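= Tokenised fold =
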Amino acid sequence: MKRIIAIAALLAAASSFAVSQTPDKQTKPAGEKAVPAGVEQELTRLTDQYIAALKGKDAAALARLWADDLTFITPGGAVQTKAQRLADIQSGATRFDTLDAGERAFRVYGDAAVMTTLTTVKGQYNGQEASGQYRVTQVFVRRGGGWQIVAIQMTRTGQQ
């Protein structure tokens, strides 16, 4: 019985010690490295160009920024290709009165990068009203010395 009480006391002391410990630095997920300043600046500049191209219906800029194998997941869950996306922009079925990508976070994995944003939109997608806030994930790949967007997914946050 004394042995059980001693073990229980040791476990209680060890668990309270473990709970009181705080890590001296945050750890990143496996494979994630600090974003080099130059890469973050380049991706920020590219994202600003992308937003301007969307708002201005600049098909030439969008064609350059989007990879030929782009996959776009619309807020409604539909999958669009680069050609479909460009057609929607050019026809006016998709338009943006305002578009603000805030809370940008980047993760870089060699020649690939992931950016997440909280994006506020006033406009429409594929002819349907789409104003609101979205969490947007974009995947970039560095090809031929430049970055292109290969995948985008938008999810409505519920905040309007």
